[in-house]
Amino acid sequence: MNKKILAEGNQITKRLFALDTHVYDEGALSEKTKEMLGLVASTVLRCDDCISYHVARCVELGLTDEEFYELFNVALIVGGSIIIPHFRRALEFLEECRRSELPLL
Amino acid sequence: MNKKILAEGNQITKRLFALDTHVYDEGALSEKTKEMLGLVASTVLRCDDCISYHVARCVELGLTDEEFYELFNVALIVGGSIIIPHFRRALEFLEECRRSELPLL
Amino acid sequence: MNKKILAEGNQITKRLFALDTHVYDEGALSEKTKEMLGLVASTVLRCDDCISYHVARCVELGLTDEEFYELFNVALIVGGSIIIPHFRRALEFLEECRRSELPLL
Amino acid sequence: MNKKILAEGNQITKRLFALDTHVYDEGALSEKTKEMLGLVASTVLRCDDCISYHVARCVELGLTDEEFYELFNVALIVGGSIIIPHFRRALEFLEECRRSELPLL
Amino acid sequence: MNKKILAEGNQITKRLFALDTHVYDEGALSEKTKEMLGLVASTVLRCDDCISYHVARCVELGLTDEEFYELFNVALIVGGSIIIPHFRRALEFLEECRRSELPLL
Amino acid sequence: MNKKILAEGNQITKRLFALDTHVYDEGALSEKTKEMLGLVASTVLRCDDCISYHVARCVELGLTDEEFYELFNVALIVGGSIIIPHFRRALEFLEECRRSELPLL
Asked: Which residue from A76, B3, A89, F25 is spatially nearest to E1, judged by alpha carbons?
């Protein structure tokens, strides 16, 4: 569907998708820090697809389980117990990423 | 009002307020990283008071203007243009923090 | 402004405003219970004007401070620390209602 | 389930469901414009069921693909990249509507 | 997954989960009232898993269908028609709870 | 502050601000329709600054009071009574725009 969007979508759609990629590029903040920011933002906004994407990216960039738990704690405290079902699904997806030998992205 | 809450609030209120403080303590992730996570979460959830609090904490912990801009870019891309008015107010408060000789918290 | 809306607004606006009044009428659930439901819903959705309205109604219907604190605790746990600034303003408004000799609504 | 709700639901439920239908009736604004408003509102609030309903209605009312893309661009810019997964599912459902010979509503 | 979280999660996670349980304990407000508050909060925040949990608890505590409908009406009026798909799923789950002879929690 | 952001902000910030302008340009959908989409999106997301901006733009593009009311009705039905305080402030700002002889943007 992304291919279709980039083929058929107009200029605005394409530019927003490009910004959505480049905003996580290494800069004054490291790529790892930015992916963590993307993950906590997606978690408090409660978007499972976005959470999975950033979990997979954080795994690639070497985030440890302890770091994941501390990141999700910030999301849980700021966003409340309404976040818990997304937290559970995020941990299940994290386990899947850890077990997988192939890249998940 | 915080003092009143801690004096009159019941156990649950007090424990939640304590968790809200300790979740940002140095751990597997640094205090600075955690405050950045708190700031991006507050920004996409659009709470000006929470944003100001975390901006002041990030200033204390040495975040540079370039780092602030990159953090807010993640919030703007994830959360959209609806974030812009909060972004403007956050930058105004950041300037105020930079000019102030006294701690703002 | 409400008068103007009811004078100039069309049928749909008027009917929604009427539903918004009658949904809190005594029924299988008491008026007090329904106002508490309205208050917790307004709190987790973080609308200060709506919170103040329901706080004043709950005061009129005899809610005690202890009951207010337990209600807000549910909101704080479900909705997270992002609720805290609204909780503080709600408690300030509650104090004002308690001090006032005239009805606040 | 809608039938059951209309059979068993009380007056308030029924009246809200009626308002939810009539708010999209032809008026000063055309039915097509109103359905577009409903679609963009559902998209930024990220409700897949509501999005599908309004996509199907907009197809019935003759919205072109180009118009759909421009509408979703507004939603993507206002609401941010958190909207993207819903945008993808909306486009998949739109394709399904275009292929279908039977009405989807 | 909850077991795993409680085994591996750090202190903050465990404490938040404990608060999330005890906030609904009998107090100045009854357990039933608090579960109703949890249900209306989960409904306006549109979290199906949280809604199902509180529906099952409210069934255990004796909430009648009429009371459920009045509670959901408050959620529908405060939160709007965007709530309707969650309302439908909540009613389906409620029917399942009523039919089940075994506890659903 | 916008000038400062455009002077000091990095490429990502500037590009997002540019997209936020051009997404409302005349295209398959008219500028007026797009501003109405922006207004309804801002209203259900409850951002007063964004609402005022789009109200002023819609006034410039000739939206009648009757059209404004029908647009806000869609927002009120989709988003619920939590929208009402923003609706009231929007109508006050609309009156101010109508009275003003100078452009408000």
From this structure: A89
